[in-house]
Protein: Glutamyl-tRNA(Gln) amidotransferase subunit A
Organism: Arthrobacter ulcerisalmonis
Amino acid sequence: MTELNSAETLIRLSAAELAAKLAAGEITSVALTQAFLDRIAAVDGGARGVKAFLHVNTDEALAVAAEVDAIRAAGGADAAALHELAGVPIAIKDLIVTVGQPTTAGSKILEGWHSPYDATVIERIRAAKMPILGKTNLDEFAMGSSTEHSAFGPTRNPWDLDRIPGGSGGGSAAAVAAFEAPLALGTDTGGSIRQPGAVTGTVGVKPTYGSVSRYGAIAMASSLDQIGPVTRTVLDSALLHQVIGGHDPKDSTSLPEPLADLASAARNGSVAGLRIGIIKELHGEGYQAGVENRFNESLELLRNAGAEIVEVSCPNFQYALGAYYLIMPSEASSNLAKFDGVRFGLRVLPTEPPLTIERVMAATRAAGFGDEVKRRIILGTYALSAGYYDAYYGSAQRVRTLIQRDFDAAFAQADVLISPTAPTTAFKLGEKLDDPLAMYLNDVATIPANLAGIPGISLPGGLADEDGLPVGIQLLAPAREDARLYRVGAVLETLLEEKWGGPLLAQAPELAATALETQEAK
Ligand code: GLN
């Protein structure tokens, strides 16, 4: 291979660039997939490894890659029919079920469990012939903002290995940030795609609720959950969204209409004449100074590019976190009832007789679930219990309606809304582990979109002055207007790259050091 197509160069290219090289016959999918597998071997394991992956799917990934290469080499109709992303590898958050690989949800209760069926998004990835590199780490059952609640240990942030990569989908974000995969899938119930994107300098999209099938995503809170792309560029997210999105009869909340052409929205970015609304309640007090500075710079860039910047107020957002932490645990407590030692995964017998089914369930759940999951099951069960249901769950649902109305009013004044994605940059591993409320506050800016079912994107907005760590900028659009996020996101991405002298990830210091260290150790 020429220098231009060396493994070290290839792993840093975007999925769109890789797809073009594959289509032109400049590289093979086997060489490409092997380059990512080698990268995983070099940076993911060991005491100071990124630990983005819970399972690496070497043989199957290479077999799919070889199949794509053979089809391309043969030419003809089959080669012409290949999907644009055929042969481009992807990593999958381990909350999404896959045949042929374990699915753990980051929990001991599912350790060693294999799904008998594929999630719809996995079927679509297989149909597009994208090699699946493996399953990525997450907070147990997607509950957390740091991956520290994974039963299998935390993932590290490639920018600084002593810091968190965000959560719950920190594994997918870290894999993409560390060039272990060009693309990944995440799930976002309260911010688990966007917040990891923000703190790792990657792009993450939570699609409109119902725009991507949830069939085969292990449910956390069914009315909030949404699968979405984790990538290094806005265009790559649009391309991946198109692979996984669109109607699915297996998901009763799946939207009936076909997806808009998201990739051309990303390719034809424009903001001229567009009204962009700053959400008054989602910046300023409580946000790190460096986050606020980068946010203000993005506003300036968009204004100079011809957008009209307006300010909107969403007064009920102050109750969003409170409503979320009643609705999400309520739904989770019900969804997690099925992990009972009878149907899936772990079974623990009580140490003393009698051996009743209730006692087996209790012993299994006591041993199989971690503290955060137990905390939320208790919260949810309490909120749903007779006598408290209306006071807690009922009130939270009414707040949810108020938040939706705030968005409706805001979108009457602005075409898209903008805010920082997270109030701070990546914090230190362990820093918030013993303080659940401090951990929950990370999602203050991302949760409203889940409560309203609207789409959101986080993209890298530069590095914070005080710590040199990535800051995320969030854009929000009305439901079903995902294309607008790609159109505006693509413009902001270009402006920011001009300002920062290229992609932000090229500037990650620790990552480069790790790669070197591991190679020297060999
Ligand atoms: N961090 C949030 C929580 O802990 C969001 C999780 C998610 O989006 N899956 O609930």
Remarks:
- Residues 142-145, 167-168, 187-192, 220, 328, 443 surround glutamine (CB under 6 Å).
- Residues 252 and 344 are 24 Å apart (CA to CA).
- Residues 16-264+281-312+408-504 form a domain with the Amidase signature (AS) enzymes fold (CATH 3.90.1300.10).
